[in-house]
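Field guide to reading this record: the first block holds the primary sequence, the second block holds the structure written as discrete tokens, and the final block holds curator observations. Each block starts with its own label. This record concerns Probable potassium transport system protein Kup, catalogued under organism Companilactobacillus kimchii.

BLOCK 1 — SEQUENCE
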Amino acid sequence: MEKRKSSFSLLGMLITLGIVYGDIGTSPLYVMNSIINDAGTMADAKPEYILGSVSLIFWTLMLITTIKYVLIAMKADNNEEGGIFALYALVRTKGRWLIIPALIGGSALLADGTLTPAVTVTSAIEGIKGQQFGNIVFSSKQSSVLIIVTVILLTIFIIQKSGTDRIGRSFGPIMFIWFSFIGIAGFLNLTNDLSVLKALSPVYAIEVLFSPVNKVGIFILGSVFLATTGAEALYADMGQVGKHNVYATWPYVYAMLMLNYFGQAAWVINNYQNKTYNGISGINPFYEMLPGDFKVFAIVIATMAAIIASQALITGSFTLVQEAIGLKILPRLKVKFPGKFESQLYIGTINWMLCAITIGIVWGFGSSEHMESAYGLAITLTMLMTTVLLHQFLIMKKHRHFANIFMVFFIALEGLFLLSSLIKFVHGGYVTVIITCAILAIMIIWYFGNKRRDAYLAESENVSLLDYLPQLEKLSKDSSIPTYATNLVYMIKLSEDYTIKRSVIYSILDQTPKRARVYWFITVNQTNAPYECNYTVDMMHTRNVVNVHLNLGFKKSQHVNIYIRQIINALIRKHIIDDQTPNYSMVPNRHVGSFKFIIQNQQFQDLGAQEQMNSLDRLLIGGRLLLQNITISPSLWFGLEFSDVVEEKVPLFLGSQTDEYLTEKELKNDVKS
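BLOCK 2 — STRUCTURE
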């Protein structure tokens, strides 16, 4: 498995167009439509209102997408990786409290993303209503649109399992055609009314917020914000394409987007008094401004762009979840790599959850107009949380004064967008808020449940491995006990001071003694560097007790069976441990003996364990154990499904438990000494 090359080149720029800009690039399909709906009907979309709206779009893309994300956030790369979790991994040493904005931002980003495929594909397909292609006339019924959208979305989710690297190669050229098309279409309409270019002045943006022609006041920002919802994804996808390819392509993308928005604005200004549109709501100027002969092509290319945007969102969700798992923010889930690149992920659980939620949203809301009313609420939370983390990054880079100015400005700006988006809560935004809260609850339980469990264990359930080395060496040489395995491997955390869970030593010595030639204690450490992969070995002055620390980046595979065989072969070659060549084997020149892996699953024991905890800890630790039991087993997570694995259920606390109220009532027939 290799990391996708991200060097700067024309090919890299083309790939960037296909990977990075799907979400933000399809926003012209629905942003102006949403703004007109805020006005009421076409007749209410007066020139002053439209000029102010397009000015707000221009400056929103300038301030949030260009300045915050392209110019500032992309400097905060974690070994060329971006996104809120990569940023958190970069700054988390600056304060434990930084996990809070990371959890809120990550959960909101995942939740709001469920609307992206629904709203983009539906907006594209709605252009087909009532259109005639040759002898075929499409129905004007919305139900026909929903059926087509459902088939497209199902197809997108079904193909994820097989990998999308091959079809992904065509994404760049398609998106280049898309951006060129919308730019040219916008320019042709803009030439009919160049006065629209006055909207480049921020004065129009400020005036429309307080103008009487703007019936919704500040809440218009909720619709304007839709133009920049892909900015967070732009930052997150930076690692796949390289920041210099983003720097090179964003000016072109920004120019094409604004040409289209200006073109739509010019068309609306020239047609808001057109009797054809009197009293009609739900008019989409993106399609209406095109000549009839171009609508078929527009619908086809818009649908393809919407599919690419959906694909980028799904892949981004997989990446986000994988990062969260690596940082121990989410429970373990089965991660597959269907392509030859590490960026080509597939997480079945997430794929089908997204599929069910997205299709549910399509049918639940029924039209892109209703979806737009709910879209963008949660993503404002993500942007606010990214601002908080970027503030810490700038301080870390010794830019304290600039960091404070940055924080105040963008908290105020994005706080304004959040406030304006709150009206969406009652219009369907509550759906994404509910999903956000559900994801956030899982993250909190898993992350803090781990922390509280480890705190309890550190207090009473850890022992020093060094104290038991003599017994382990003696057991290894005791020929009176049958050999349990040549290599006995415990997937367990062994601290730098050699403290280990009491249950591990109990498993080896106090149950049926497990004799092995070599005892392995494997600690897997997640590191801040996304693709780090190295290890350290500590023999503890023995030849048969090995302490291995695997240091894996939060984007690396956890397939321990691959790593452990490489490590043992290296140690045998260096004569650090004894040769294990088996007497019988079909593999030539094999020097490694058999393996048995021991994985311990902790459970609450029946008596007393929960009484030792306060209510919050009981909820967190109990919830964490529940999630552990219903998600992927450790053996599958560590890639041991074809290895000899023993999963031992052990109590959360081992000590001998007593009940102070138990008393002896009677003792009969005691044998006197």
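BLOCK 3 — OBSERVATIONS
The two ends are 72 Å apart (CA to CA).
Residues 8-426 form a domain with the Amino acid/polyamine transporter I fold (CATH 1.20.1740.10).
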